Amino acid sequence: MSEILPKNNIFKVIGASSLGTLIEWYDFYIFGSLAVIIGHQLFPADAGASALINTLAIFAAGFIVRPFGALVFGRLGDLIGRKYTFLLTLVLMGGSTFLIGLIPSYKTIGYAAPILVLILRLIQGLALGGEYGGAATYVAEHAPKNRRGFFTSWIQTTATLGLFLSLGIIVITKNILGAETFSDWGWRVPFLLSIVLVGVSIYIRMKMHESPMFTKLKLEGKVSKNPLKDSFNNKANFKMVLLALFGATMGQGVIWYTGQFYAQSFLENTCKLDFNDSRYILLWGIAFATPFFVVFGAWSDKVGRKWIMLTGMLLGIIFYRPIYKTFLNDTSEENFAKNELFSSSQGFAVITPLANQVDSLRSLETKILFTNGSGYTKVQIDTISASRGILSAPGTLKDKILPKPVFWKFVGLIFFQILLVTMVYGPIAAFLVELFPTKIRYTSMSLPYHIGNGVFGGLVPFIATLMASFEGATPLSGLWYPIGIAALSLVIGTIYLSNKKDESIND
Is pTM beyond 0.85 here? Predict the structure, then answer.
């Protein structure tokens, strides 16, 4: 029977666990949030689009090794305990992040720069592979069974809040230092700052006690001597590992990384939105949606975990393409040219037709205002394509700043995507904990979680961007990857998963 703690104590457990996990997610995600800038630092100046793809590949490498971290640290967690294992993962993650902030650029050390960053990303991935399972297991083993979904859902907020924190610190740093300084060396500040956050978290975690369930197991001499063998050689347990992966975490992973990371990449790199604008949109969407992790976690205690998670996958399958098509349409050059007002920090800033013949753009003179950050410069553009309504001027509109109505429309679309994330992610910690016995829980739940999220989910930005770059592809082609994975998981989950809630986790 789990030890039912007073409410103030259980929230201390949640707070201590969540803070460290949030900081680890922050450390892991600042790299992805700065992929474009880091790409320019790690690769030759003439690398072009391949710099972004190569940087996303390094980012993805951290996800690929997460399952190995789950095996290594899951085994340690089931052998020596939850507390000390995720103390170790926190130190590894924080140290690696700090060192990434110190790596010289390609101009200084050549290809040694991306190689060193790749090594540190691999260490980050291994550490994160051990962190989540420990934190989720630790909280679940303190929580009463009829509120396990509610209490573990607080841990679920940390991944999104870590992204929120990383975006917030990046935007603040850039605004303080200025765009040029930030691109030069200021991007390192968020990496270096993590060492302070990690230090605070280590201090708090050192004061934590071991999980009562694991302590009881250890006193009774029932700790697994070989967690890997007990997890994967046992046919019934291995079946649950596979069901958890293909019926739940695989689909959950692609929904998570599409709604947050690919959305950010798409807005910045495909739609060419302003750096701050793309991040403000995501920050607002996260702020509005984050409470729903707890809402759906608590609801899963009443109605079960399965159908909430699968509904989130289904809605993603249905709505992803319409949402991203809207992003494209509303930021297209044609659409911008038809608007009387739009902004861009590098290129076209404001369009004001000098005649009222809005149905015949060919004969209009158009006043264009350019901005270099210190003010607007007026120029005249005489040639306009009447057939498509696109300004005939060299280059492509980039760093677009959206009109307020469109900005908030985009916030709403990001909010909806993150709402789907809360549906698939809010209940999943309780769902995974309830599948496996205490003595091998850390190992058994960590592996499917990190394959589903680290491999299938974490590769979404890289694979989707790569697919969209193929000859004959459209900007929406990359969405077929998360849609296909979510659809497969939906079918398997619908057929084979049971609708668990309030399961005993004492065995």
Answer: no
